[in-house]
Amino acid sequence: MLGIERIHSVKAVAIAVVLAPLLVACGSYVPPSATFAALAPSANDWSAALARPARVTLETFEAGRIRVRLSEVLDLKDPRAHELHDEETFVPVFAHLLHHDDLGDYLIDAGLDASFQTTTSGDIGGLFAFKIYAVQRPGEDIASRLLERHASLQGIFFTHLHPDHLSGATSLPKNIKYVAGPGETPKSVGFFFYEDALRGVTALQTFDFTHAPSMPPLGPCIDVFGDGSLWAISTPGHTDGHVSYLVVTKSGPVLLTGDRWSGCRATPAEASSTELHPATSMMARERTHAEVSINSLRLHVHTRR
Length: 305
Description:
Elements: H1 2-25, E1 33-35, H2 46-51, E2 56-69, E3 88-100, E4 104-108, E5 134-135, H3 142-148, E6 153-157, H4 163-166, E7 177-180, E8 204-206, E9 221-223, E10 230-234, E11 243-249, E12 252-256, E13 265-266, H5 268-272, H6 284-303
Parallel strand pairs: 1-8, 4-6, 6-7, 7-8
Antiparallel strand pairs: 2-3, 2-5, 3-4, 9-10, 10-11, 11-12, 12-13
């Protein structure tokens, strides 16, 4: 018996030795990091920020649809969801094009690239790539959307780096700004699951909220362009570095919440009339962060009705 146990132990060590370098070498590409150079804020409270002249427009694209379980986007423990079952469904994948009068075109999230028209896992690689299942019609990919609008992209601001928010970057220029929340990196489990949408990007800039001015009730916020047109808001929960954005458009302020809230995009009036809850499937720590973020967003949109 000891001989057999020793053989099994040797086999386990050998497998670990073989797999370890593969797990390290075959992960998602992560560019060198750099801190986003935040400008001095144009306002110190939301009354002043929202009173400034608007200089941007915003358009939202549907870049495809991704399969999820209801518990990943809804709180099925809420009494109002008692008739719902945890089944699979498809939800839209969004990207948002911001046009600034002086600074040009920027994306908030990159949606999906055209590879999802030929395979449901798109540009995702690895043994478990099938875990991503998305569909897309011709012309819905982000590159086609930008080409149709003659957009000249200057940068991308991400809510977070999950595949349905990142994959479109595969087909986008790499010599532009790529900016995400603190600690955000693409999902990576060695050769089991990886994505190279950021390959070729020379630096992934990250927001540093530690010294950002506090903008009650949301806490530290970054005036991205320094003119009050785009605000980055730290909303951890879905991921530790998740960021929401408040865009002060010519048609009024719009709150982009990524996966912090399944509503994705809402005016303050729309958001204040909608209940926000963390998804059932979140771990306890994620739910705690999510509830804090959501309560801050809810308080803000109710304040700005």
